Amino acid sequence: MNDITTMRAISQDVIGGPEVLQEIRLPRPAAGVGEILVRVHAAGVNPTDWKHRAIPGLMLGEPPFVLGWDVSGVVEAAGAGVTLFKAGDEVFGMLPYPHGAGSHAEYVTGPARAFAPKPAAIDHVQAGALPLAALTAWQALVDTARVQDGSRVLIHAAAGGVGHLAVQIAKAHGAYVIGTASAPKHDFVRKLGADEVLDYRTTDITEAVRDADVVVDAQGSEHAMGSLRSLRAGGLLVSLRLDDGTPALTREATRLGVRAEVKLVEHDHAGMLAIARLVAEGRLRAEIAGTFELADAAKAHATGETGRTAGKLVLTVR
């Protein structure tokens, strides 16, 4: 007989390599006020997961903790005051970042408004791959940069988890998209809709692109500083790295007559609904670089840390 009071989850007791991830049993959570309890079918694995696993002193503090912000699954129960969903509804969403982590488990709770109905056109693996990366791209391009028809947008790491979704979102808003990627990934990025693809290994991007309205940069540090030179006067750099929020970057942007913003992804009901619409319209789809059973989370982390994947890695929960 199954124990309905506990659940399987991937946790760690120490900071370290993928081998510190262990499958354990934890008490099954209950939906609080304004929350839903979701039976997880799939959960994306993102760079922030392996960084929190491996780097001391990040936003989750010291372990033990359960990682994972992406989730796609079925509502098991709705807490008091929730009207958006009921038991049996298929949903997908991003748990509040950073302290809402916990989707690498059989069940998870989160604010009802962190979720949206899962598009019927895609399965849970596709849906579980989307939330964090797609919201990051949406909030950078649409909410922050106000990308519109005719905008020239440079997207660094355009084959990556955020990048490949950013290309599609920018194109859906009528932008002219220039992506950077290694040569073997150029065909993939073009199929996403990029108008130009540049090899960052052989091309000085700051010389090749000087008139972008928007640059989206997830690589950070000196790379973000250099990206300022790819902007036209009045253009905007959106960095996805918190450590780029330095006075030096702001001073250099001001000197060059451009702007720089640092964006941290937020859970977002309206954003999830917009992403779901793009999916339903056939204009947004996650590339699945690999799927792993929940018990194989360590293998997923090790694969992601190679830096050679195109698209997203996903844990499946049976």
How would you sum up the major sheet?
Answer: 7 strands, mixed
Shape: globular
Q: Give the averaged pLDDT, no decimals.
A: 96
Query: What would you report as the Rg, rounded to the nearest angstrom?
Result: 19 Å
Low-confidence stretches: none
Total DSSP E strands: 16
Q: DSSP helix count?
A: 10
Order of helices and strands: EEEHEEEEEHHEHEHEHEHEHEHEHE
Class computed from helices, strands and strand pairing: alpha/beta
Give the termini separation: 16 Å
What fraction of residues sit in β-strands?
25-35%
Helix content: 25-40%
Structure description:
With about 325 residues, this protein is of the alpha/beta class. It is about 25% helix and about 30% strand. Strands 3, 5, 6, 7, 8, 15 and 16 form a 7-stranded mixed β-sheet that branches. A 6-stranded parallel β-sheet has the order 11-10-9-12-13-14, with helices on both faces. Strand 12, helix 7 (about 220-225) and strand 13 form a beta-alpha-beta unit. Helix 3 packs across helix 4 (about 160-170).
Reconstruct the topology from this structure.
Layout: E1 6-12, E2 22-27, E3 35-45, H1 47-54, E4 65-66, E5 70-78, E6 90-94, E7 107-111, E8 115-117, H2 124-129, H3 131-144, E9 152-155, H4 161-172, E10 176-180, H5 186-192, E11 196-198, H6 205-208, E12 212-217, H7 222-227, E13 231-239, H8 247-256, E14 259-262, H9 269-280, E15 288-293, H10 297-304, E16 312-316
Parallel strand pairs: 9-10, 9-12, 10-11, 12-13, 13-14, 15-16
Antiparallel strand pairs: 1-2, 1-4, 3-5, 3-7, 3-16, 5-6, 6-8
List keywords for this structure.
10 helices; alpha/beta; 6-stranded parallel β-sheet; 28% strand; 318 residues
